[in-house]
Design brief:
- This protein has helices spanning about 5-20, 30-40, 115-120; strands at about 25-30, 45-55, 55-65, 75-80, 90, 105-110, 110-115, 125-130.
- The strands form two sheets. Strands 4, 5, 6, 7 and 8 form a five-stranded antiparallel beta sheet that branches. A three-stranded antiparallel beta sheet has the order 1-3-2, covered by helices on one side.
- The chain is an alpha+beta fold.
- The radius of gyration is 15 Å and the shape is globular.
- It is about 25% helix and about 35% strand.
- It has two domains: about 5-65, Ribosomal Protein S8, Chain: A, domain 1 (2-Layer Sandwich); about 75-130, 2-Layer Sandwich (Dna Ligase, domain 1), CATH 3.30.1490.
Length: about 130
């Protein structure tokens, strides 16, 4: 199935799995989705991910993360840049999410990175989504 916005599909799938209380969820694999999941895993928002092959189709399995009380680590996800309206920011214009309690995922010339790392590296780019 072809989709117009694979990032939004990934975010919606994660959001729905968290609301349903699932431990893990799967998505069709792509390099962009894998880079996003690697960043979310490194930042501690998901428990990890692994690449699978199901019936000769590459898939990404994501382990969702919950705290000791059973509440999800991810409080919310919001798509910023969309196919119909791309949002670009310079390094100085990338604002912290919830005063630094969340993060923005920024696509820069050096790959995907968190808003903090983009500001430290003095790199701007396309703000893909916010997570908190």
């Amino acid at each position: 199935m072809n989709t117009t916005d694979s990032i939004a599909d990934l975010l919606t799938g994660i959001r729905n799995a968290i609301r349903a209380g699932h431990d893990k969820t799967e998505f069709p694999a792509s390099r962009q989705r894998e880079a996003i999941l690697k960043l979310l895993s490194d930042e501690g928002y998901v428990g990890g991910y692994k690449a699978l092959t199901v019936e000769n189709h590459p898939r990404l399995q994501v382990r969702l993360k919950y705290d000791h009380e059973g509440e999800p680590v991810i409080g919310g996800l919001k798509r910023v840049s969309k196919p119909g309206r791309r949002v670009y920011r310079g390094a100085a214009d990338i604002t912290p999410v919830l005063g630094g309690m969340g993060m923005s995922v920024v696509s820069t010339s050096r790959g995907l990175m968190s808003d903090r790392k983009a500001r430290e590296s003095k790199l701007g780019g396309e703000v893909l989504f916010n997570i908190w």
